Amino acid sequence: MATQTQVLKRGAVQPARLHDYLYDPTCSLSGVRDHARETFAAKTTAEQLQAVPVYEHLFSDLRQYPRFAYRIQSRDPVPEHVSRQWLGQADAHREQIALSRLFTGNDAFVVPPRTYEHVDVGGRERAKFFRKPLVPFMENIQPLVVLDTGRSTTGTFGDAAIKPIPGHL
Q1: What does the alpha-carbon distance between residue 103 and residue 109 come to, in Å, rounded to a whole number?
Q2: What is d(CA 71, CA 69) in angstroms, rounded to the nearest whole number?
Q3: Mean pLDDT of residues grouped by 10 in the chain (169 residues)?
Q4: Domain ranges of the chain
Q5: Would you call 127 exposed, middle or buried from its count of C-beta atoms within 10 A (0-12, 13-18, 19+)?
Q6: Pairing of the two strands 49-53 and 68-72
Q7: Which of 84, 101, 145, 164 can pair with 109 through a Cys bridge, CB separation 3.0 to 4.6 Å?
Q8: Alpha-helical segments (H) within 20-161
Q9: What are phi and psi of 72, to 5 degrees?
């Protein structure tokens, strides 16, 4: 008797990590609403659900008396020292101050300066400061429209060659 083995291939990389919005500095969210949406999605994944047996209905097969109740686990995998605030809050606050200063003309609004961490240009992160153009292929692209230069008349497109009737627009 022949047997058949089926190999399931899983993707090499997850599309997004669970708490990527907190840890990844390159993860950008458009606002507080998207940050709250990501937080909710991270806290309500299927991995956070826990099946708790209901002992009164443990041997029941009826739908109205389920054997298990599901609850969200109270443990939080994110350490306490990690800030859960939206990372763009400082930039949004800076923009709000700049707009207030622009529209009111009041110089009392002081826009705080941006601070950047020191980056070693000649060291480990040297490759980030070069730019190469992306050239997918080198052959010439043929034009999509080729103009016919053999015609001597211009402006005769369909109904335009018909003489207009006098008195009509």
Answers
A1: 11
A2: 7
A3: 75 72 80 88 83 92 91 83 80 77 78 78 80 66 67 58 64
A4: 82-112
A5: exposed
A6: antiparallel
A7: 101
A8: 20-23, 32-43, 89-104
A9: -85, 130
Stretch (H or E) spanning 71: strand 68-72
Counting Cα atoms < 13 Å in the Cβ hemisphere of 133 gives 4
Q: Are 41 and 50 contacting, i.e. CB atoms less than 8 angstroms apart?
A: no
pLDDT attached to residue 52: 93
Side chain identity at residue 78, one-letter code:
V
Q: How far is CA 96 from CA 30, 99, 115, in A?
A: 15, 5, 18
End-to-end Cα distance, the chain: 86
Dihedral through CA 86, CA 88, CA 90, CA 92, nearest 10? -110
pLDDT number for residue 123: 82
The pLDDT of residue 17:
76
**Maximum CA extent, the chain:** 95
Give the pLDDT score at 106. Answer: 79
Strand partners, 52: 69
Structure tokens at 16: 């997004």
DSSP per-residue string spanning 97-131: HHHHHHHH--TT--PPPP------TTTTTGGGG--
Q: How far apart are CA 39 and CA 160, in angstroms?
A: 63
